[in-house]
């Protein structure tokens, strides 16, 4: 997460010297990471809280904490990809 933020800051400061191909590559990598994590945990219903779908049963405490951390990190990563799209435009 910190590396992604550092990449975004460096590309923002380049202004006129930034390359669109580099920005597009980083954007694709960020979105691939998000989709890869959600595919990896697709059997664990990690997307359901993100989509506001109620659970069928009450999950254990540590599973809830893990789900919250993963969803928070992936939403931030997707937001960084969106920021890169804005930098491209």
UniProtKB/TrEMBL annotation:
It is a multi-pass membrane protein. The chain crosses the membrane at residues 20-41. It is found in: Membrane. InterPro entries: RNFT1/2. Coiled coil: none annotated. Signal peptide: none annotated. GO terms for biological process: positive regulation of ERAD pathway. One of its GO terms (cellular component) is membrane. Keywords: Membrane, Transmembrane, Transmembrane helix, Ubl conjugation pathway. One of its GO terms (molecular function) is ubiquitin protein ligase activity. Its main location: membrane. This is Uncharacterized protein.
């Amino acid at each position: 997460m910190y590396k992604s933020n550092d990449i975004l800051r460096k590309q923002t400061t380049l202004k006129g010297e930034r390359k669109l191909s580099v920005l597009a590559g980083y954007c694709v990598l960020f979105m691939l990471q998000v989709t890869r994590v959600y595919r990896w945990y697709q059997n664990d219903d990690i997307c359901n809280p993100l989509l506001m779908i109620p659970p069928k049963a009450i999950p254990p405490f540590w599973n809830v904490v893990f789900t919250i951390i993963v969803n928070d990190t992936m939403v931030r990563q997707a937001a960084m990809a969106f920021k890169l799209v804005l930098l491209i435009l």
